[in-house]
Amino acid sequence: MKRFRLARGMSLGNLEDEIDGLVSSQTLSKYERGKLQPTAATLNQIASALGVKSAQLWGEPPCHVEWIAFRKRARLGKREQERIQSFVAEEFEKRVQLQEQIYEGNALEFPVLSVPVRNLEDAEEAALVLRNTLNLGIDPIANLIGVLEDHYIHIIEVDANEAFDGISALARDSNNKPLAAAIATRSDVPGDRQRLNIAHELGHLILKLCGEIDGEKAAFRFGAAFLAPAEQLCRDVGKKRKNIQMMELLHLKKRYGISVQAMLFRLRDLEIITNAYYKRWCININRAGWKKHEPIEIPPEKPERFCQQVHRALAEELITKMEAERLLNHIVKPSADRSSSERRQFLKLPKEERERILRKQAEEMADFYEHDTEWREWAGGPVVEYDTP
Fold it and tell me: At 46, which CATH number?
């Protein structure tokens, strides 16, 4: 109950108002701490106010969510941190439950917290290991979110302020076996920053830190190497450069989908440019006012798999329309296809009326096939010879 409340940014007082003062905020606090149990009527009212099923307040969650990393600034308040974590946990559990409903099961295809890293060079190598595991080669990744979702890593967007950067998490079953992985990212960041944030969190999910290595530096090195592999980047810019122009950096930004600043940092890490030259570029970027807003905007990527899975489950009647709306947090528009209830209504019509409707549809389709030639071309029309120069 507390987690659902926090995920919606509600205080105990807010919840008391939502249930029209049925019980006090002090009583609600006792419910959350297990000091008191609500009646069925009160529980139903609370569930309605939170937009969940009553059973969700009684039952065990479908998995245990383990936080791997939570990247935030110091100014992110405790209450906001609790809201974000509660929201991500709820959304992650939805995805795990639906994954099991449509029989996808455990499809993790990457090593979880198991690639040993003792130095930054190991983090570089770990990025290549994962690329090989996912059969990505060394080419730039056009759609990072699409690739990760294809390999069952859930991407969750969070509405939050700039003090929040990202979360990586695992879902485990009652036997502590990993069921799924998730990466949460802020929903309003530019695409270049979004991609590096996600790749950074991906590093936290697979790296096993050894010794005294800095986890954030290792994850950043992993993320940069995953998006811009050294071998391919050296082919594009060369192994050593004394000078590099802004237009070339902007081209690299578009090609690899990371910011100019991150690209310069990457070139320095690979010793393609010197540290002194890197610092000169940093000064120039500050003078130009590009620290936060660089030239050329990379559009953010959008997660799509969960929405597709919900509509699949709805079409296969594994979930109801109401359940689909709860999962997606918005109203689901009716399908363009005739529903089973509409078909039943059609069959209840008198025979003469059914035949009239079918004759009308047949006439409309006959007219379409007689006058519209596009379908013939699609189906394989006559071969046409074209003159070639």
Answer: 1.10.260.40
